[in-house]
Specification:
eight-stranded mixed beta sheet; alpha/beta; 264 residues; Rossmann fold; globular; 27% strand
């Protein structure tokens, strides 16, 4: 079995979660989404979740299908296929300290860091802590000072209630040696240069013997640009950022409706 879309045989489908398949910062997909992904898998097409979330959090969201799909986590920092980790990238301590200093000095948002899927934060804001732990199930470990973390850091993020647009220019100007991308309406991620979902997708596909042109990708934020632009067919959400939409081959209002059309 296979999927044919616009005369092209589709061998993989990669999709972002938040703002694409998952909304309101939840931790569970609508049952319809799980059902459509199951149909995709039944047609021998590889389904890949590609999110800014940690691998542990992705596993929770994709629990019903976690053993049947592949994962790109933390915006391409790491990826897993059939439970095997294919690679892992880290942010060097010097760059991490620069990020902490700028964000704290200018009060640009709530900082948290990921170390092999364990999240740490030094925030004292109870509302933010509750949102991360209880609403998003991201379960941060609270520390007195992020500078004291001695584990390898694979991703640093901030949450800004007023939206990423209000602080993104300041961050990009102040951190020219670090990749700064929006990953949601209120979220910004810091990554080593060269780390993105597109490069992670290339690595994963090479591992399973597929080519970029063999499939399609969905996304909505700047952290999806490389993946959407490099896949065989890239779909951008109508609600997405201007840069993301400019990189897409087609703009869609609903990713799940487009997937239902493709898999029919």
């Amino acid at each position: 079995m296979s999927i044919i879309y616009k005369g092209r045989e589709i061998k993989y489908i990669a999709s972002d979660l938040d703002g694409t398949l998952l909304f309101d910062e939840g931790h569970e997909l609508e049952q319809e989404v799980y059902d459509v992904i199951e149909k995709i898998i039944d047609k021998d097409v590889l389904f890949i979740v590609a999110s800014g979330r940690t691998y542990t959090n992705e596993l929770e969201i994709m629990e019903p299908l976690k053993d049947k799909i592949s994962f790109i986590a933390s915006n391409g920092v790491t990826c897993y296929h059939k439970g095997k980790q294919l690679f892992d990238n880290v942010i060097d301590k010097e760059h991490a300290l620069k990020i902490f200093e700028l964000v704290n000095e200018k009060q640009l948002g709530h900082l948290f860091v990921s170390c092999n899927s364990q999240l740490y934060s030094a925030s004292k804001d109870e509302k933010f802590i509750h949102h991360m732990n209880e609403d998003l199930h991201l379960y941060m470990k609270l520390v007195d000072d992020l500078n004291e973390i001695n584990q390898p850091i694979d991703k640093i993020s901030i949450f800004n209630e007023d939206g990423y647009q209000s602080v993104l220019p300041t961050l990009k100007d102040g951190l020219p040696d670090i990749k700064v991308v929006s990953s949601g309406n209120q979220w910004i991620d810091f990554l080593p240069f060269g780390v993105n979902k597109g490069n992670a997708l290339k690595h994963l596909l090479k591992e399973v013997g597929l080519e970029l042109e063999d499939g399609i990708a969905f996304g909505d934020q700047d952290n999806d640009i490389e993946m959407v632009s490099e896949a065989g067919i890239g779909f951008g959400m109508k609600s997405g950022t201007p840069s993301l939409k400019a990189s897409a081959d087609e703009i869609v209002t609903s990713a799940i409706e487009k997937l239902k059309e493709i898999v029919a």
